[in-house]
Amino acid sequence: MTRISDIISQIHAHVNATSLSKNALACKAGLAPNTLKKFWEDDWNPSLETLQKLEAALFSGRNDHSYPHGTPSSFTFPSLTGKRILLIITGGIAAYKSLDLIRRLQDCGADVTGVMTAGASEFITPLSVASLTGNQCYIDLFDLKEESEMGHIKLSRDNDLILIAPATADMMAKMVAGLANDLASTLLLATDKPVMLAPAMNSQMWAHPATQRNLRRLKEDGLHIIDPANGLLACGETGPGKLADVMDIVRAVGAFFHPKAQPLTGKTIILTAGPTHEIIDPVRYIANRSSGKQGFALASALTEAGAAVTLITGPVSLETPMGVHRINVESARDMHEAVHAQLPADFAIFVAAVADWRTEESSTQKMKKEKGGIPTLKMAENPDILASVAHLKENRPEVVIGFAAETENVIEHGKKKRLRKGCEWIIANNVSHTDQIQKGVVDKDVMDKGVMGGNQNQVHIISDKDVISLPEATKKETAQMIVHEIIRHYA
Ligand SMILES: Cc1cc2nc3c(=O)[nH]c(=O)nc-3n(C[C@H](O)[C@H](O)[C@H](O)COP(=O)(O)O)c2cc1C
């Protein structure tokens, strides 16, 4: 789901949940009353500015403690004003997404010109690209009018960035080989401008040694790669190879033009994530619903901010974020040991949902039902990783942060936990939506909002001085806001 459609669904939810009329919401956002006239229609296509105003209106007054440093969109939409981007669209099924990409790049101020391969024209038309960009869409190397001025050389130089999205396996191979047998490959060879590519293909194609070899070569050649996402592919298979989310591509382009100062450069961070598994017997264990998504998102955001992150994770099925050093563990005791083995570090951030208890003894053989009777599991307490690090006399990280999953009185419980554990911050969140999942309500909305396993989160950063409540956002955005706060306080 793109950020834009995220905002649109939030507006829908808000209008549904309150008695506020569409016109009243528009007025609150400082927009003309009829702005939301086509609100329910599928082709409602508001400008980014309109959405940002609506989003600001939605966020205002939503929390008891409002977040003073911007809404998530301020972390989401880069300024590309004045930037000229040559978008090369190649012949993958994801070519249709390049139409949305054009709009989103323009929303950020970019001037986009399209180039399409013959393959791409099988999926979308040059007319659509030309209409959306407002510029001619180039497809033919031997277009006489253009070539009288050596059009391909001009095209390859007249832009600030060349972005290939989607980039096929074929185009990657051509670039590695230095082929120049169509307009796109020729101008890629002729350009002196930076090139970014967002590959998209079937996961077997992506995993193929040839593609992986080409990927390495392209990186060595200095190309900027926007990694594909993991997910359901158009061919029905699931795995890596899906075109990165359109807004992630826009963000990557933004980050290219505005390389962030990396304020956490030189900082080492130990971060835990995911659940722990406490063994009962070789086939059974005690676990919890943690998916690891928030911890992994935080590891990624901290790395982007320049930190060297060691991610110690319980069993999860998530890809390691780029640049992160990952250590896999299973039980709370493994995690405790791994954390202490990684010290010293500048920061320690404990996001993992660590089991409080384990069975005192685990059976080496599968426990048999036929033996009769219901087994009684005698429990033993697990080590308290957060407190053990926060109370260290030697090698204590400068900043120790713990997460608290609460189902009621979130802030009060979070404050008490912070004092008990002796850490700088507790980041508390309400995981009570999981109740609804337990009750068998498997509605997608609930799954999305359920904090454990879901994609949204709303957290409160509790320190000895104050409580900063962040707005509800995706886990990725929440991670970016937390990193923003870490930088504000400690970088
Ligand atoms: C329906 C269909 C979908 C395709 N999807 C992809 C894709 O997602 N990624 C890819 O690398 N190739 C895909 N291909 C194969 C490319 O279209 C093919 O390699 C073509 O030569 C690419 O040309 P180009 O790189 O010049 O655009 C697909 C082919 C078909 C028929």
TrEMBL record:
<keyword id="KW-0460">Magnesium</keyword>
<comment type="similarity">
    <text>In the C-terminal section; belongs to the PPC synthetase family.</text>
</comment>
<dbReference type="GO" id="GO:0071513">
    <property type="term" value="C:phosphopantothenoylcysteine decarboxylase complex"/>
</dbReference>
<feature type="binding site">
    <location>
        <begin position="383"/>
        <end position="386"/>
    </location>
    <ligand>
        <name>CTP</name>
    </ligand>
</feature>
<comment type="pathway">
    <text>Cofactor biosynthesis; coenzyme A biosynthesis; CoA from (R)-pantothenate: step 3/5.</text>
</comment>
<feature type="region of interest" description="Phosphopantothenate--cysteine ligase">
    <location>
        <begin position="269"/>
        <end position="491"/>
    </location>
</feature>
<feature type="domain" description="Flavoprotein">
    <location>
        <begin position="83"/>
        <end position="252"/>
    </location>
</feature>
<dbReference type="GO" id="GO:0010181">
    <property type="term" value="F:FMN binding"/>
</dbReference>
<dbReference type="Pfam" id="PF02441">
    <property type="entry name" value="Flavoprotein"/>
</dbReference>
<dbReference type="InterPro" id="IPR035929">
    <property type="entry name" value="CoaB-like_sf"/>
</dbReference>
<dbReference type="GO" id="GO:0046872">
    <property type="term" value="F:metal ion binding"/>
</dbReference>
<dbReference type="GO" id="GO:0004633">
    <property type="term" value="F:phosphopantothenoylcysteine decarboxylase activity"/>
</dbReference>
<feature type="binding site">
    <location>
        <position position="403"/>
    </location>
    <ligand>
        <name>CTP</name>
    </ligand>
</feature>
<keyword id="KW-0285">Flavoprotein</keyword>
<keyword id="KW-0511">Multifunctional enzyme</keyword>
<dbReference type="InterPro" id="IPR036551">
    <property type="entry name" value="Flavin_trans-like"/>
</dbReference>
<keyword id="KW-0456">Lyase</keyword>
<feature type="binding site">
    <location>
        <position position="417"/>
    </location>
    <ligand>
        <name>CTP</name>
    </ligand>
</feature>
<keyword id="KW-0288">FMN</keyword>
<dbReference type="GO" id="GO:0004632">
    <property type="term" value="F:phosphopantothenate--cysteine ligase activity"/>
</dbReference>
<comment type="function">
    <text>Catalyzes two steps in the biosynthesis of coenzyme A. In the first step cysteine is conjugated to 4'-phosphopantothenate to form 4-phosphopantothenoylcysteine, in the latter compound is decarboxylated to form 4'-phosphopantotheine.</text>
</comment>
<feature type="binding site">
    <location>
        <position position="421"/>
    </location>
    <ligand>
        <name>CTP</name>
    </ligand>
</feature>
<dbReference type="InterPro" id="IPR007085">
    <property type="entry name" value="DNA/pantothenate-metab_flavo_C"/>
</dbReference>
<feature type="active site" description="Proton donor">
    <location>
        <position position="235"/>
    </location>
</feature>
<keyword id="KW-0436">Ligase</keyword>
<feature type="binding site">
    <location>
        <position position="366"/>
    </location>
    <ligand>
        <name>CTP</name>
    </ligand>
</feature>
<feature type="region of interest" description="Phosphopantothenoylcysteine decarboxylase">
    <location>
        <begin position="1"/>
        <end position="268"/>
    </location>
</feature>
<comment type="similarity">
    <text>In the N-terminal section; belongs to the HFCD (homo-oligomeric flavin containing Cys decarboxylase) superfamily.</text>
</comment>
<dbReference type="Pfam" id="PF04127">
    <property type="entry name" value="DFP"/>
</dbReference>
<comment type="pathway">
    <text>Cofactor biosynthesis; coenzyme A biosynthesis; CoA from (R)-pantothenate: step 2/5.</text>
</comment>
<keyword id="KW-0479">Metal-binding</keyword>
<feature type="domain" description="DNA/pantothenate metabolism flavoprotein C-terminal">
    <location>
        <begin position="264"/>
        <end position="487"/>
    </location>
</feature>
<keyword id="KW-0210">Decarboxylase</keyword>
<dbReference type="GO" id="GO:0015941">
    <property type="term" value="P:pantothenate catabolic process"/>
</dbReference>
<dbReference type="GO" id="GO:0015937">
    <property type="term" value="P:coenzyme A biosynthetic process"/>
</dbReference>
<comment type="function">
    <text>Catalyzes two sequential steps in the biosynthesis of coenzyme A. In the first step cysteine is conjugated to 4'-phosphopantothenate to form 4-phosphopantothenoylcysteine. In the second step the latter compound is decarboxylated to form 4'-phosphopantotheine.</text>
</comment>
<protein>
    <recommendedName>
        <fullName>Coenzyme A biosynthesis bifunctional protein CoaBC</fullName>
        <ecNumber>4.1.1.36</ecNumber>
        <ecNumber>6.3.2.5</ecNumber>
    </recommendedName>
</protein>
<dbReference type="InterPro" id="IPR003382">
    <property type="entry name" value="Flavoprotein"/>
</dbReference>
<dbReference type="InterPro" id="IPR005252">
    <property type="entry name" value="CoaBC"/>
</dbReference>
<feature type="binding site">
    <location>
        <position position="356"/>
    </location>
    <ligand>
        <name>CTP</name>
    </ligand>
</feature>
